[in-house]
């Protein structure tokens, strides 16, 4: 089946939006530690002793997720990995550290919306 130009543009834009979420959160918020709240969340959930390095490792893994998305390798597995990671992380934060979340417990609504967007963009590939 032939892809339309608008279908290609849709896929490129949605992929870049999703990639940017993973890349910015990984690099800016965690690896560069420009949003210390992320390190505080890790410290509260996993312990303060290793929170600095664990936050960096989580950031690197988020950057790797962005690269994986761009690679196009095993896209179905990638989509479900993204959804699982985001939802597990947000459920843990919902119960364990709601006071550290940008929008408190409402953060889970934004996470769910992101997951729906990830799934929708995958299901609507041209």
From TrEMBL:
It comes from the Bacteria. The keyword Translocase does not apply. Coiled coil: none annotated. The chain crosses the membrane at residues 12-32, 52-70, 77-96, 102-120. Keywords: Membrane, Transmembrane, Transmembrane helix. The keyword Transmembrane applies. This is DoxX-like family protein.
């Amino acid at each position: 089946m032939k892809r339309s130009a608008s279908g290609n543009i849709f896929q490129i834009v949605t992929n870049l939006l999703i990639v940017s979420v993973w890349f910015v959160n990984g690099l800016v918020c965690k690896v560069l530690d420009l949003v210390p709240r992320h390190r505080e969340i890790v410290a509260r959930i996993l312990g303060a002793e290793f929170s600095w390095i664990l936050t960096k490792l989580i950031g690197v893994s988020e950057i790797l997720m962005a690269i994986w998305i761009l690679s196009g390798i095993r896209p179905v597995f990638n989509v479900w990995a993204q959804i699982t990671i985001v939802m597990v992380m947000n459920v843990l934060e919902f119960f364990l550290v709601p006071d550290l979340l940008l929008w408190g417990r409402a953060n889970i609504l934004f996470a769910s919306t992101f997951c729906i967007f990830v799934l929708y963009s995958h299901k609507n590939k041209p």
